[in-house]
Amino acid sequence: MASQAKHAESFLNFVNASPTPFHAVKSARELLEKAGFKPIQERDPWASKLKPGGKYYLTRNSSSIVAFAIGKKWKPGNPVGMVGAHTDSPCLRIKPVSTKQAEGFIQVGVETYGGGIWHTWFDRDLSVAGRVMVKDNKGGIVQKLVKIDRPILRIPTLAIHLDRQETFSFNKETQLLPIAGLIAAELNRKGKSSEDEAAEQLKKTSVSDAPFEPLQTVTNRHNPRIVELIAEEAAVDPSAILDFELVLYDTQKSCLGGLNNELIFSARLDNLVMSYCAVEGLITSLSKPDTLDSDPSIRLIALFDHEEIGSRTAQGADSNLLPAVLRRLSALPHDAFAGSNDDSDRSYDKVDDESTTFEQTLATSFLVSADMAHSVHPNYPQKYESSHRPEMNKGPVIKINANARYATNSPGIVLLQEVAQRAKTPLQLFVVRNDSSCGSTIGPMLSAKMGARTLDLGNPQLSMHSIRECGGADDVGHAIRLFEGFFEHYGELEAKVLVDSVL
Fold it and tell me: What DSSP element (H or E) covers 142?
């Protein structure tokens, strides 16, 4: 279908512009602002800013983002329909002191981030992207995002003639080390000999009247040429760069693949697919001008950094970010959010005790934890439980685990089935084999932290955590449509799925 292809193409633009969580948040922010969302800040009061029918977003550390739209019938104590995802992916990060040289090569020290399939990073055309902290001309310190769009790094494999390993193995500290060029070529660019360079370095270390620096400067900790390229990208002088957080990324663009363009070949499908679909699902759910007029809920997305390393950071899902946002929404003045005066209002529209609105909201809210799932692999079918083999382009996968590695339970499945039926979106079910390990998501930690009902799902993919992954092109549209339906109908469906209510 044309709309499905359009969704896939739009995702490709999103992921190609987003090599880091900082860039992913920037890409999400641009989509939200185009749809009329207004920025707010955690450090400011919200009571005078937030209005019924309003659309807002906030960021933390520029690598996590929360966006929400307030139904005109919502008031503190009412439910919030939430979709959560994450912005980070396994990668290699430049070390704080990265300058290295060996055997005539310039090299760059890196450390592993998350659980990557690291052998896939060999023999790829790599570059760097991330955040740079810069001193501006007013004496302040600001951040700039950089993305060098040409290959400057490579991790070369050893020729098979020199080591005929049947199973490829390597040391991550000493052999997962990129080369950035040749020392001789850099000296030639500078018009210097190796003796000149050595004398210059000696002079630098012996000058006693140099200004005190608590740390070595960036150009001493990192290869000066790399710093120059970063400065060019940031449009500043190299001396203005105080520090940076840079990661390596594959410069090969994400693209459609397969005989009929039915597949997506891309980096960072886990988890930028679900991040993108959450943003688009929220925006699309608001496309009708009057859609918020009768909505008693808030529609919210939360895209977190650091899921791949456990989420226990200030901007991770295990932080106070989402609970703090919900608590502040619950504390908004009741006279501004009066809800409906219709006698048919649901019970959660009646607030007897304003001090408990936060807890009431949590008890009626629902979180869809959206993180990619495993497609069945045609070369390893024995790794999958025989009745649970998700297929690409057949819809999002509900993930279930008896040991609560996922947060899904039957009330959640029933509710999502109702949403999917209205959205005309197919769903699939997945459990891991009993003799296999099981990953986890932000779902269990957020459901435990908030007490809100939660379900885990994601689009099926192959090669999860590889530098180059594979997913279904149609599944992008399936997930967007599902999230759109969830946001549109949750305020109505919430009261119909009863578990703890007294009948």
Answer: strand 141-147
Q: Which residue has the tokens 């649970």?
A: 388
Gap between the terminal Cα atoms of the chain: 45
Pick from 6, 2, 9, 28: which is nearest to 271 by CA? Answer: 28
Residue span(s) of the chain under CATH 3.40.630.10 come to 2-89+267-496
Question: Is 455 in contact with 408 (CB distance < 8 Å)?
Answer: yes
User: pLDDT-derived band of residue 199, with 50, 70 and 90 as boundaries?
Assistant: low
pTM, whole model, 2 decimals?
Answer: 0.94
Assigned CATH topology for domain 2-89+267-496:
Aminopeptidase (3.40.630)
Tell me the average pLDDT across 442-452.
96
DSSP 60-76: ETTTEEEEEEE-TT--T
3-state secondary structure 340-381: CCCCCCCHHHCCCCHHHHHHHHHHHCEEEEECCEECCCCCCH
Q: What angle do CA 79, 412, 353 make, to 5 degrees?
A: 25
State which CATH number among 2.20.25.100, 2.30.250.10, 2.40.160.20, 2.50.20.20 fits the domain covering 91-250.
Answer: 2.30.250.10
| Placement of tokens 């001493």 in the chain | 220
The answer to whether 456 and 408 have CB atoms below 8 angstroms apart is yes
What's the CA gap between 491 and 412, in Å, rounded? Answer: 15
Let me know: does 401 contact 367? Beta carbons within 8 Å: no
User: Rounded to an integer, what distance in angstroms lies between the CA atom of residue 310 and that of residue 307?
Assistant: 5
- Residue holding tokens 């055309």? 125
**How many whole angstroms separate alpha carbon 64 and alpha carbon 321?**
9
Rounded Cα–Cα distance for residues 408 and 453 (Å) = 9
Nearest to 114 by CA among 308, 321, 336: 308
Q: Where would I find the H helices in 183-319?
A: 183-190, 194-206, 218-221, 224-234, 269-285
427 neighbors 417 (Cβ within 8 angstroms): yes
The string of pLDDT tens digits covering residues 289-326 is 899 999 999 999 999 999 999 999 999 999 999 999 99
Q: What is the pLDDT of residues 60-106, one digit of tens each?
A: 999 999 999 999 999 999 999 999 999 999 999 999 999 999 999 99
Q: What does the alpha-carbon distance between residue 80 and residue 416 come to, in Å, rounded to a whole number? A: 15
Task: Work out whether strand 453-458 and strand 366-370 pair parallel, antiparallel, or are unpaired.
Answer: parallel
